[in-house]
Amino acid sequence: MKKKAIINFSIIPKDDPKQALRIRRFFMAVAAYALAVSIAYFSYLAGFTEWKAIVGLLIMASIINISLYIIFRTGLNLKMADPSLTALQMCVASLVVMYGMYFANESRGVLLLSYIIILLFGIFRLNTRSFLYISIFTLLTYGIDIALLKLYHPQDVNFNIEYLQWVVLALVLVTFSIIGGYISSLRTKISKDSSTIKHLTDNIHDVVFVLDMNLNYTYVSPSVKILRGYEPEEVMKQAPLDAMTPSSLDLASRTLSEAMELEKLEHKEDISRTIELEIRQKDGTTVWTETKLSFIRDKNQRPLHILGVMRDITDRKRIEEKLQFEEKRFRAFVEHSSDMIVLVNPEGVTLYVNPAIESILGFKPEERIGFKGSETVHPDDIKALADVFNTLSTDTNSPVMNAELRLRHKDGSWRTLEAVGSNLVNNNVVESIIINYRDITERKQAEEQIQYLVTHDLLTNLPSLRFARDRLSVALNMARRYKKAVAVMFIDLDGFKDVNDTLGHDAGDYVLQQVAQRMLSCVRETDIVTRVGGDEFLIITTEINAPENVAQIAKKVIRLVSQPIIFNGRQSVVSASIGIALFPDDGQDMDQLIKKADEAMYSVKKAGKNGFRFINPKVN
Questions:
Q1: Using DSSP, how many helices (H) and how many strands (E) does the chain show?
Q2: Is 398 a member of any domain?
Q3: pLDDT for 472-493, tens place per residue?
Q4: pLDDT recorded at residue 598
């Protein structure tokens, strides 16, 4: 068993890459100090400098570098504005060099050259302002050197050369300040841009990857861990095409081959392709991605790499598949619906009609697409339909509109349809007016038949008493408004019982039917003939100018009814007893008038039958 080390220390820290880089740069500066001391030593051997320069440089360099290393290793530099301490190191280096130059005698130019080399370390690190400050500090210290030399060693120095060196140094420093500032700002910008790009690629959900022209990964963003479950390092060892399902592999291969062929043809425009690929994940499942591929080029527009951006669209694909399923289901519903479903634009032109039109109107769908639906509408329904359609087409907020209309069948007949319309012009899927037609022809015919049975006598086809009472109510209201008279004639057949008894009920029914037709021939279309029940009838005549008009109708009825009726070769004869009541003289409502007419009819019966009488004796 290994014993744990009591002291865990390394010259360069391993847990902080940036700090480790700063210390490595510091050791490069230490090498520069060593170079300066070596130059001073060889100058001493050559007799160009004094021993004090060597000793002083050695002591100063040792103290300075040990102190700086302690500052770096303990992390104190991280509390400062410039953690690299570049400006501080260059200022200290200036002092050390200027100290050496004071004792250098004829070798001052060599040390000055070594200082310019030191400046090169800062040219890539400092901005223009910082470099100018250091330059001013350097020129001041060199100026102090020259002043001290002139004060204490005037006989040993060629001051013209020193002045010239000071001017040259000033020019060099100014030039370095400008160049160094530009390089430093450019470096900062590149570093910032690189950092921004890395931050973006490291934090976006899309996977960014780069391939060389041999389709090997050169970069994969960390988001691949989220998309596929692999670490970037694992993906870098894989072949890009191996991760794809067979169908996606074929698509990707064809797309890349096509793009590369276009490149060979020297297409100068940007070539990019966006494809949907199904990619395998680490757990064996697959994920759908939308991948955009483009080329990274050099300055001569030659492709160097393939840039890919991969986005997870699995949820979108599921939604699309669901929408496709819903669309298929809706289409199946529409195309197999027994109702006719039509899409029209606001101008009424048919954009779509389902196959049900063939069973309802006899047309094939393609025969009506592009035509206006109003072309098949019954003339009597066009105006009502136009009003409804105008409301529906101009108001997108209008409610669902309902209407009944007749449409022409291909064979020329008319079908009655119930229409329900909705304005979905603003719906980005439908973008039209949708109308649902249901064929109600048979239903309408049945309703009309039922209505007819309710309002008519089945034997004679005359209106029923209930229907006649409604018509009489309307006639009385009109008579009140226009000051006209209305006559109610109550009719009972004489001798009808004998027909039933001698000839049978079939003969009786036939007689009733014939009598009904004869009565209808005696009145106008505006008058009403109804069967009250058995052998009793009611005639309502409107717009009577004088009682004589009613008397003429009564005489005609009596004359026609009393004519013989032949049934199965046998003759039967009936007559009519008629009682008459007039509005407004004999009554103000239906019940009164019918009752009075009934009373008048019975008085005719008592008087011998086959005649007519008004309830008002004065009229008689």
A1: 19, 17
A2: yes
A3: 888 888 888 888 899 999 999 9
A4: 94
